[in-house]
Amino acid sequence: MSIQIDALRDKRGLIRDFVYDTLKKNIMELRLEPGRSISEKELVEMLQVSRTPIREALVKLSQEELIETTPQKGSVISLIDLQHAEESRFLRKTLESAVVREACELLGKEQVLHLQNLVSLQELCVSEQNYGRLFELDEEFHKSIMIGCGRARTWGLIQQMATHDNRIRFLRLASDSNWQIILAQHRGIVSAIKEKDPDQAEKMLRDHLELVVIEKENLKQKYAKFFKSI
Amino acid sequence: MSIQIDALRDKRGLIRDFVYDTLKKNIMELRLEPGRSISEKELVEMLQVSRTPIREALVKLSQEELIETTPQKGSVISLIDLQHAEESRFLRKTLESAVVREACELLGKEQVLHLQNLVSLQELCVSEQNYGRLFELDEEFHKSIMIGCGRARTWGLIQQMATHDNRIRFLRLASDSNWQIILAQHRGIVSAIKEKDPDQAEKMLRDHLELVVIEKENLKQKYAKFFKSI
DNA sequence: ATACTCTAACTAGTATACAAGGATACTTAG
DNA sequence: CTAAGTATCCTTGTATACTAGTTAGAGTAT
Questions:
Q1: pLDDT band with cut points at 50, 70 and 90 for residue B3
Q2: Which residues bind near strand D, taking a CB cut-off of 7 Å?
Q3: What is the pTM of this model?
Q4: Where is the HTH gntR-type domain (chains A, B) (predicted)?
Q5: Would the CB atoms of B56 and A60 count as touching at under 8 Å?
Q6: CATH 2.30.40.10 correct for B82-215
Q7: CB contact under 8 A, B71 and A12
Q8: Long-range CB contacts (< 8 A, 24+ apart) of B133-138?
Q9: Which CATH class is domain A82-222?
Q10: What is the interface pTM, i.e. ipTM, of the complex?
């Protein structure tokens, strides 16, 4: 890791971003476990960088509720907050439903084609059982619809808010999602957009996002220490 | 201003927040004009604080797109981005519409009473022509609905995104809003919630938020240098 | 006069030094 | 033996020193 850092020292201003990205990725993928305390000193030694860029990265993370810092005490990776996660699902469902209606008007042929391509790639991944890549392509699919409608910032907000929910999703990534149904829904959404049928598009999208029923209680018991108890 | 800062030196950890709040307020109320460049050194002299807390405040502001920092060059108060503003209105309309439907189920008697009180206060302000306070009460009204439904974070996101749109609203604050209509709409929303009529509540809220039709072109010509030109 | 080059005075990025509050373990008084 | 107090070592917050790009302007050559 320090090797990569050394390469960044040439261009000033990249270290802070690197620290931020690294920490965020590790938090999201639960290599930095919720509840784990993490000191600046530890990061200094780990990343071979001075405290300043680390502190600035921590400020950003704390603004996104990914860590919690107490003065003179230390920082802790935020526990997963089920209420936060629920609110992020609400946010996503509400906004994407509205955008997909716009998509029926706004998306052109080539964009619809792009979506179809994504679905095809997803089918390929299913047959190859490459679920990691499939996960990415799923995100890419939803993102493309939003960006195509000029809602890049909205997508950014959804992502920002999704930090707690995504960690839950990561916990159950191993478990079997029924990808066949998901792909069928993707195809349905695309064809509704193609046919410019907003009601149908919205309905399919809502079904799609609500499919992800999570056995919260199950996970919460299994990984009790990761969850905020309130 | 430095007097206040001196008082903060007792409790460590408050200076950064003070710098952040101060800058944000001044940007939002256009005392720091869009396009104005602002250096850390200038802030150091203005606030009598070292660069570190200032930098950390700037990091937060830049994450919210309120300033733009170029390495080794400087920071600039972000120009008002009309596309950003439009997207924030879309965000607000979409989310508040959804929440007000929930409100019909979730809000209890005392909460509805609180809303009615707010509207009464607003009427008082109109008769006293205290438009500054009225503006605050308007925000308070919408905020109360969201918080009451457990959507505090959603409200926070709306606020975070509203930075560009709010600056536009500030530009035209002097101009005559038709507060009578606005108050009537508030009353309508409250009674729809009280009667637990989600369709009506949503309709009234949408009308309400769409009332704020801004003569963008007008403002953009008048304050051309404040706006992003793309 | 104009165009070019180099320097000096900026800027922000990074590293380090110092300050102050919190936690813990050890000492000492009861 | 217990409990209070204190010393020491943590933590993060703040200030400052140092580094490296950027820019604007003075001065020179054409």
A1: very low
A2: A 10-12, 38-42, 51-52, 55, 69-75; B 8-9, 12-16, 49-53, 56, 71-73
A3: 0.91
A4: 13-80
A5: no
A6: no
A7: yes
A8: B134/B179, B135/B173, B138/B182
A9: mainly alpha
A10: 0.91
